[in-house]
Amino acid sequence: MYVNSNCVGCSQCIAFCKHGAITAKGRATITDKCKECGACIPYCPMKAIQPGQVV
Q1: pTM score > 0.85 for this model?
Q2: Which of 5, 10, 14 is nearest to 54 (CA)?
Q3: Would you tell me how many other CB atoms lie within 10 Å of the CB of residue 40?
């Protein structure tokens, strides 16, 4: 999972992460606690959380 440049730092995704893998100081960051479950994706109003890795 990764956060693209659409992120505005609203932090809504943090509440839906079952693994405590998202932090936000400004733009959200997905930590190594991420289990790739995707639960956070539909809750991002900016569609900033994406599956896969940054290429």
Answers
A1: no
A2: 5
A3: 24
